[in-house]
Structure formats: structure tokens, C-alpha cells
């Protein structure tokens, strides 16, 4: 199978994760690595890059949150419906071989690739601190799955309805003050990831972030996902970047470009 060709699959399972997000399990082996994405395609609605939220036993999953017109149409799908995809694409998170403990920091549906990463790290015998932050309890997506997988789950909500009242970055800071962590991984709102990269840098701990931009081709041809000022295309040289590299990008945490190339502030 060439990964730039479309495959059409039937959804084997549709799991309701929250009131506006679902995980779809598709019966295909991708040989993916955590952090990579697929271009999901729903005829009549459109195509969208989505992080892979898990892969095992010849099946992979994606978690779709109903936020824009394409994802809203995908969210309505159920078991047995058809969904097209191509991939996997992009760079992946790297768990250091000699590490013993890692921390992941997820916000909103950004927790999806981190759930996949955590399961892989636990299978390698690593201790995983799974930090997840959300507006409220109903928006925490993977806490139960991660507890079952054996991660230490640390939650925060803006309204205090679950975990500590505050931000996931506060939880990370406290963890790094009191525990030996070998590497930090993050995915979620860019302002949160920028803070995570800065905190990790302050504690002299390696970090990887997942930077998302509007994508068209997904394979490095159209230039749509190039970022200022390095000009790297995030569909090929990202989405996973070392924290220091992300911090050197002028637009990281401050703006992105829409489908017409216009700057949009976060
Ligand atoms: S989406 Fe076309 S180059 Fe990245």
C-alpha cells in the first residue's frame, strides 16, 4: 500500500468520548508511530488532517471532535459507515531508549496522539505521567483509558470540576519540581504548548510539541503548511518538532494562516 493513495474503510467501532467527540476504529494496519497523522476524507464534506489516536492488532483509531464543517460531518458517522484516508504522514514523537519516566501534557482533543504515545511508552516499561487539562470535567477525553493503561493521571480543569482548578502547565511545573522526568511531550492549544516548551527549557528537560497548520496536500507539495520564518512544511518536517525548534519559529504561539494564507492570531 502506498500511503499517498486513498483507502476507503468501514468504521468498525464508534466510541463516544465526550458530548462532541468520537473515536473511530478502522480495520487497517498503518505501521504508524505516535504523533503521525492521516488525511481523513469524507466524500461531500472534505478532507482533514487528524492525528492517529491509537494502533494495535492491525487496526488504528482517530478521534474526531466536532469543531468545523468537515469534522462536524465526520462526527455524525457511526459503526458501518465508510471513511476514506491516506497516510500515515509526518514526523513522530521519540521516546528516549534510556528514559525511565516521561510526562505528557494534553489539552482538549490534543490529548489523542498523547494517549497513543502513552500506551506505547507503558508497553516499553516507562513510567508515564499523563497530564490533561480541559475547560471542565465533560471535556476530559482520555483519563479513564489512561488509568486503565497504567499511567499516573493528573487532571486540571478551568472550573475545578475535576482535578485541580487551574492549568495543566501548573501541574507540569509542580511535577518537574518534585520528580525526575526524562522528557516532556505535548499536544493541544498552541499557547499551552509554548508554555510547556518554555517550562521544559527552564528545567533543562527535552520536549517535543505537535504543531498543526491548515493543510491541503499533506505530502509537502503545495507549501500551504510552511511556517515563518524557517519555511519548513509541517506536513513533512512536522507536526512533531523539538521544543527549541518550535520556540525559534516566529509564528509559534502567536499566529497561523488560514486557507487563503491570511494571518490569524491565536
Ligand atoms: S499541506 Fe501541502 S505542503 Fe504541507
In short:
The chain is of the alpha/beta class and 266 residues long. The protein contains six helices and 16 strands.
CATH topology of the largest domain: Rossmann fold
Summed up, the domain count is 3
Low-confidence stretches: none
Named once each, the bound ligands are: FE2/S2 (inorganic) cluster
The order of strands across the largest sheet is: 1-7-4-5-6-3-2
What fraction of the residues are assigned to beta strands by DSSP?
A: 25-35%
How many E strands? 16
Helix tally equals 6
In the CATH hierarchy, what is the class of the largest domain? Alpha Beta
Structural description of this entry:
With 266 residues, the protein is α/β, with parallel strands linked by helices. It has 3 domains: 83 residues, Elongation Factor Tu (Ef-tu), domain 3 (Beta Barrel), CATH 2.40.30.10; 117 residues, Rossmann fold, CATH 3.40.50.80; 56 residues, no CATH class. The protein contains 6 helices and 16 strands. A 7-stranded antiparallel beta sheet has the order 1-7-4-5-6-3-2. A 7-stranded mixed beta sheet has the order 11-10-9-8-12-13-14, with helices on both faces. Helix 5 links the parallel strand 12 and strand 13. Helix 4 packs parallel to helix 5. The model has no long low-confidence stretch (mean pLDDT 95).
